[in-house]
Amino acid sequence: MADQPSETNRLSILKDGIRAAWPICLGYVPIGLAFGVLAQKAGISPLAIGLMSVLVFAGSSQFIAVAMLGTGAGIAAIVVTAFTVNLRHLLMSSAISVYLRGIRKRWLTLFAYGITDESFALNLVRFREGNWDWKRALTVNHVTNAFWVASTVIGGLGGALIPAHAFGIDYALMGMFLCLLVYQLRGRLYVLTGLIAGAAATVLSLLIPGNSYIVAASVIAATAGLYIRRRCPQISRQRGTQ
């Protein structure tokens, strides 16, 4: 597999990536604006907002970090919390790595940087459907990255003019995650695993302080899903679990 796309294919790859990425980009605009507004109101400058979006590039962790800054939390607590919440990227990277065999490490590094919940879900579906490659997936990752960074900076610049709770912006992030969940429910095994994850997260949220219960629930659900798939092949044979 060549590392660099040929001249004849480069434009096609870019078009395919942008065409696939634009729904995510449209979703990132209100969420990014919301984050920028909240960060500006927490006393973060537009430059710092942009740097945070470039270096972290994880919407949920950035929202959590801004909320913790607003409550006066220490830097160590914020870093540990963001790291814990972002551990889900380890699971996502493991799931998509099977489609990235034979790629040089420099491209894998660039690909890993751009993985988010949304780009992971979209690329995973496209890889499963076929006629998709890592170059197009990489385009999706970084086109959405550019939209996210730009939206957060614009939100920071216009934070004084945009109310933090306007237009239901606070619900946009949750709404996007719900849409991603629905697209992943490709059979009974997936529905069952999702229910286990929801139940585990609900129970653990009452027992574990902070947001680490999210990672714990993900691990529990993934383990349970693997166990069910091996022990109950009749469920695993449902559509989309081959």
The tally of helices reads 12
Q: Provide the residue-averaged pLDDT.
A: 81
Order of helices and strands: HHHHHHHHHHHH
Supply the number of structural domains.
2
Structural class by helix and strand composition: mainly alpha
Shape, per Cα inertia axes: globular
The strand count comes to: 0
What ranges have pLDDT less than 50 throughout 5 or more consecutive residues? none
Gap from first CA to last CA:
26 Å
Q: Sheet bearing the most strands, described?
A: none
Salient structural properties:
2 domains, mainly alpha, globular, about 240 residues, about 75% helix
Provide a descriptive summary of the structure in words.
The protein is mostly helical and 242 residues long. It folds into 2 domains: 154 residues, no CATH class; 58 residues, no CATH class. Helices cover 76% and strands 0% of the residues. It contains 12 helices and no strands. Helix 1 packs across helix 9 and helix 5 packs parallel to helix 7. The two termini are 26 Å apart. The mean pLDDT is 81.
Write the layout of secondary structure elements.
Layout: H1 7-41, H2 46-55, H3 59-70, H4 75-85, H5 88-96, H6 105-113, H7 117-129, H8 134-157, H9 169-184, H10 188-207, H11 212-231, H12 233-236
Helix pairs in contact: 1-3, 1-8, 1-9, 2-8, 3-4, 5-7, 7-9, 10-11
Brief summary of the model shown:
The chain has helices spanning 7-41, 46-55, 59-70, 75-85, 88-96, 105-113, 117-129, 134-157, 169-184, 188-207, 212-231, 233-236.
